[in-house]
Amino acid sequence: TMYSFIQSRKSVRGSKNSKNGSISARTKSLIDFVWLIKGNIYKSFLFIGFSFDDPNLEHILNQIRMELNENIRTHYCFMKKVCQAKGQTDEDFNKDRIKQEVRETELKRFGIQTIFVDEYSEITDILVELEKAVFANNVFISGSAEIYKNEWDEKKADELAFNLSNKLVAKGFRVVSGYGLGIGSSVINGALTEIRRKKYKHLEEHLGLHPFPYDIKDDTEREKAWDIYRKEILKEIGIVVFIFGNKGETTIAQGCLKEFDIAKDKDCIIIPIGSTGGAAKQIYLKLFNEKEKYSYLDEYWEILEKSNDINELVQTVLIIAEKARKVL
């Protein structure tokens, strides 16, 4: 599920200027809000710090409800649970409690579910967990292949990359690619094939493309820029799959190893298909040597190390990724 976070701002009240016909800051803010909602009408929203007493807001929500009819998505808002203040009478407390229950019922009419908190500080913890859950939907496929050998010829390597991204998108994951040498096109084509088949309207919700900039001539400066770029790509990633990772007959793709270090520091779910060799094999061995830290791979070590069956490998990745998504 894609979430949009909407945080309220203090309304800046102004008056309409009759000379130049300008509108008040409050009205402009309201117009911007309408376009934000309508432009993302099929997403789920989390309202933070909103006062739902504003009649203009209620009018907007009614419009959206009528436009979507029965297809309205579920949205969420935070609300501090009413508690009896010191010195407050039972009668006044019950009035406040009933008023809050009525407001909760009213919000349900617009598809907004209320999340009650005892303290506002709880919201931060909830947002951290929600962020993890959203990121667990983003899968980065790291790898490159300059040579192909043993069980993995070029055609089979392309098929693995294609099927991997294709099936991940089919399961609702967002695939992210750095357009790695040799496999990048297959990763992208696999995702695009499924996106076209499902006729998804918003490409960026299912596929993220981050080709590395090659126009930096100085080697040192280019490596620095790429290191920053890698961190930026992986910033919102929850799962990383490593395949191949070679730059020739005997050279391991250092970029893949750097991406592994970033993923490890971020506590991403790491899935190395060691049987493809290269950096993926090295990463597999590093994890296996600390296997107690990666219990989510317990049932799959042998498959990831030895299997050359594309369907088996793809299904294994899907199982691990879906389990991780449910947990997070």
From TrEMBL:
Which Pfam family, any one of them, does this sequence belong to?
STALD
Domain NAD(+) hydrolase ThsA Sir2/TIR-associating SLOG residues, every copy: 122-322
Record's InterPro entries? ThsA_STALD (IPR041486)
* Domain of life (superkingdom): Bacteria
**Span list, region Disordered:** 1-22
Q: What is this protein called?
A: NAD(+) hydrolase ThsA Sir2/TIR-associating SLOG domain-containing protein
Q: Which organism is it from?
A: Dubosiella newyorkensis
